[in-house]
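Supplementary Note 3. Input sequence used for the single-chain structure prediction.
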Amino acid sequence: MLQVRDLWVAYNGAVALKGVSLEVKRGEFVVVIGANGAGKTTLFRAISGTVVPRSGEILYNGHNLVKAPAWKRAFLGIAHVPQGRLVFQSLTVLENLQVAAYTPVAQANFKANLDLVFSLFPVLAERRKQLAGTLSGGEQQMLALGRGLMASPRLLMLDEPSLGLGPAVADLIFERVVEMRRVKDLTILLVEQKAAEAIHICDRGYVLENGQVVVEGHREALLANPTVQKAYLGLV
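The predicted structure, written as discrete structure tokens, is reproduced below.
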């Protein structure tokens, strides 16, 4: 479904990604882990079209996206739930969900998607008329995930969904992500600092360090990798 090939991205002369290559097959759950500044968010921004690569390819179902505008990527079925939630604080919960359903596919599936969001996150149903800016951090993250679902994506990209959340709420978010994948048969690409939790729910993963992929493999291989164990799992 998604192939990133030899991707280079630079900001103001500083190179953020250095020849990154990765693949996400249809139906897979792939995670990218790494420390702050490793290039994870830059990778997502390049895929979703908010930054322009210096070179390389981003192939999605045969389409080369490097020169495609961000809106076209959304119409092709890519939804990006950004780091920091970024809900529309002056809109209600329901309005936030409504504005995400702007493609023809999303509009056609609006009722089914809304029912699913409210079943996954009952608190959003209870607070559908409440301004998003008055929600707690965890509730705003639920809303951000729900907004991603309302777009009827084929590929759902999640950037640090546990950021700033307490352990119990973060665990709930991970559980709901797994349920979202099961119910909608989604392909998911997840960036996450909580490496242990992320690896345990993924099929495959990549480790980014200083803008480069240094480790890749299936879940079991990542869990057994000494570098991953020492740097991210605290086992060595």
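Strands lie at 2-11, 14-24, 29-33, 55-60, 63-64, 78-81, 155-159, 187-191, 204-209, 212-218. The chain has a mean pLDDT of 93.
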